[in-house]
Amino acid sequence: MSGIIGASGGTHEGVAPGVDLVGLRVFDDSGAGYFSWVENALQWVHDNRNSFENPITAINLSLGVASWNADSIPSWANLEDEFSQLEQDGIFIAVSAGNSYTTFNTTGLSYPAASPHVIPVASVDDNGLLSYFSQRNSRVIAAPGRGIISTVPDYAGNGNGLGDDYASFSGTSMASPYVAGA
Fold it and tell me: Does position 9 have pLDDT exceeding 90, yes or no?
């Protein structure tokens, strides 16, 4: 996601090359996480938004619950206080809309994309058509999310010890950083 936003000097530049990035980890090595970890990260952003030479102005959340598809938030949603505070802080929050459209075959968003405090981002292909998998509703902004080539860590690439690795992925998680970076 960071490469989609800010990669520079390589084969595939990001949408905002040279941008200052702050990366907060909310998943473990196996890709599992808890919303409480996301909640802590969002609180950290609020607390530290002005701690850098350039203040934090945008957040990308390429995550969501595949089993949720609605235009409203679930009863168990625990990020709303943080989203509301960050919105009051003037921080833009882009969130991947979700990739489960074919599961539900109706409009709706994953959570946290369903939050009224964020901008949900759907995926489009090279022709500008909404991706078959992309969850959607009337609030989404769409961005490229099919076959997106971006940077990956060396261990996920060629393992040569250099930062010269790229891979291609599809999903609303690839679309969301385009909007956050813009």
Answer: no
